[in-house]
Structure formats: C-alpha cells, structure tokens
Design a protein that fits this description.
85% helix, mainly alpha, 8 helices, 223 residues
Length: 223
C-alpha cells in the first residue's frame, strides 16, 4: 500500500480532481435541465406536464451505463451514418458530462418540482394579484423560497452524481475508478488499490454529507 501511495498517489489525486470536475459539470447542466422540466411539470398545461413526465420516466428507466454507451457510441453513429454528412465524434468528457447531466437532470426535475410545490399557493396568487406575470412571479417570488427547501436535496444529488461518475470508466474517461484499474494492472495489488480508492471516496463524500447537514440546519434555523 505504501508503494501505491508514494508512486501512484499523485495520479490518483489527479483522477479524483477530474472526477469532481466531471460531477460539477454534470450537476451544473443537470440544474438547467431540471429547472426547465421542473417548471414544465408544475405549470397548468397538460402538454407541458406530459412532456416533463415522459422525460423523467425515460431517463430514470434507462440504466446509466446504457445511457453512457448510447451517447458515446450511438449519437455519433446516428449523425454520421444514419443521417450522413457529419463527421461527429464525442470525447469521453463530453459524453460523460451529457450522460450525467441527463441522468441527474431527471432527478433534479423532481427535486425542483417538489420544491416549487412546497411553497404555499397563496404566494403565487398574491404575486399575480399585484400584476406580475407568471414568469416574473415564479422567478422573483416562488423560486427564491423554493431554493431554501431544495439546497439539501441538491447537495445529496451531487453526492449521488459523484459516485455515478465511476460508471463512466466504461467509456474511457480517466476518472478515479478508471485510473485505479490501471494502477491495479501495474501493481497487481487489488486489495490495496481499491482500499485506497474507497477511502478517497469516503473522505470526499463524508465532507459533502456533513456540509449538507450543516446547510440544512442553518436553513431550518433561518425559517
């Protein structure tokens, strides 16, 4: 184990950094996707509600590894072969970010929907009675209150997304698990390698979990 830490420790730390960057990118775009479909699910329009529900059901119903393969291999094949006239390729980072964003976005949509619905309906009615449009009422009145409820869930979703990055080793992204496979192949020390990787994940996720609890307590005190 000492040899792994001294020789490959820097490589594993760099891989953890790439893992965190990938998770942050995925969460950033997931928030945009989730906000879009979350609002579609709460507005009083049947078509929008159905579109949002279909997106959530489809993405949540497809295993993430299948989604990763579909984006990395299937999307370029569709544009290059079926449609034709394209020379499209996706890097592992691009495909991984898109995969995490879609997968996490489906869950973020439900988090945002629940956060919006947790705000008293009278808040929207009061804003509309003052002459504000629906979009302005949502942006300036409802969403600021809903965010307080959503923040702990968003942090928890980030933790889940961070762990889900390990699946993207199948498309060759050099995150922590993929790098650990290379370390194991070079050292033939499976137990020690995966023990170190497990501790690294545990440390990062424990810090994030504690942060979520601190934020949740402070939000509860502020109410």
């Amino acid at each position: 184990m000492y040899r792994i830490i001294t020789v490959y420790g820097g490589m594993l730390l760099e891989a953890m950094g790439r893992t965190l960057i990938l998770a942050l990118l995925g969460l950033f775009f997931a928030c945009i996707i989730g906000l879009f479909f979350g609002i579609l699910s709460v507005i009083k329009n049947r078509v929008c509600n159905v579109i949002s529900q279909i997106f959530v059901d489809v993405i949540r119903g497809v295993p993430m590894i299948v989604l990763a393969f579909f984006i990395y291999f299937g999307v370029p094949y569709f544009f290059n072969t079926i449609i034709g006239g394209y020379n499209m390729t996706l890097s592992a980072l691009q495909a991984g970010t898109a995969c995490l964003a879609l997968n996490c976005g489906a869950y973020m949509s439900e988090i945002i929907r629940a956060g919006i619905q947790s705000v008293d309906v009278g808040q929207m009615e009061a804003a509309r009675s003052l002459g504000l449009s629906y979009a302005t009422s949502m942006r300036k009145v409802v969403l600021p209150q809903a965010i307080r409820t959503m923040i702990p869930s968003i942090i928890n979703q980030f933790i889940i997304t961070l762990k889900d990055t390990s699946i993207l080793s199948v498309i060759g992204f050099p995150e922590l698990v993929n790098t650990a496979k290379n370390v194991q192949a070079n050292t033939f020390m499976a137990f020690q390698t995966w023990a170190i990787v497990g501790v690294m994940y545990l440390c990062v996720i424990t810090i994030l979990s504690r942060s979520a609890k601190v934020v949740e307590r402070r939000l509860n005190v502020g109410r």
